Amino acid sequence: MNSPKTANIQAIQIAISSQADVIACRKTARETATAMGFGLADQTRLATAVSELARNALRHAGGGIFLVHAVQSDGRNGIQVLVEDKGPGILDIEQAMQDGYSTDRSLGLGLPAARRLVHNMQINSKPGKTTICIDIYLPQ
Ligand SMILES: Nc1ncnc2c1ncn2[C@@H]1O[C@H](COP(=O)(O)OP(=O)(O)O)[C@@H](O)[C@H]1O
Ligand SMILES: [Mg+2]
Questions:
Q1: Segments of the chain scoring below 70 in pLDDT
Q2: What CA–CA distance (Å, rounded) separates 107 from 52?
């Protein structure tokens, strides 16, 4: 059974096709975190991780989809975000997770930073489909 708080959290989906959509994903992630009772620091962690993933979908894949919903794991309440795209895929995930690695001559800090900001991050990627899933949980 979901607690009343998680039961009130509705799943939200946003198509990412512009910088404005990236900002909308960030804002929605923060609002969901606020509604679930996350503190300011965790709201900002989630919002920052989401904006990196959404930005990557836009920049490296030409766009994608953002989905946010409440999750429970081991009796803990949290938020799960999925960012999916149909782009070229992340060819070498281990390399992409290293600080400073970029195929784009940009900073290359987005993925490793996102990983550090949340409790769990999973990447599934092949040419034509990349799915990145992040979770953050309320303190027990
Ligand atoms: N959604 C994606 N599709 C394809 N490649 C990606 C995606 N996200 C990240 N990557 C690859 O992983 C690298 C590292 O990502 P990131 O750490 O965010 O750095 P940056 O975006 O600054 O290049 C990118 O340069 C790109 O090669
Ligand atoms: Mg990036």
A1: 1-7
A2: 12
Distance 1 CA to ligand 1 centre (A): 37
Probe residue for ligand 1, chosen from 56, 97, 122 as the CB with the greatest number of ligand atoms within 8 Å: 56
**Which residues span the domain enclosing 30?**
4-9+18-137
Which CATH number covers residue 84?
A: 3.30.565.10
Nearest to 64 by CA among 81, 48, 44, 42: 81
- CA of 48 relative to ligand 1 center, distance in Å: 15
pTM of the complete model: 0.95
What is the C-alpha radius of gyration for the chain, rounded to an integer number of angstroms? Answer: 15
Contact 114, 121 (CB under 8 A): yes
Q: Using CA atoms, how far apart are residues 72 and 20, in angstroms rounded to an integer?
A: 30
The total of structural domains in the chain comes to: 1
Q: How many CB atoms lie within 10 A of CB 120?
A: 14
What is the predicted pLDDT for the residue at 7? 63
User: Residue 72 is encoded by which pair of tokens?
Assistant: 């429970």
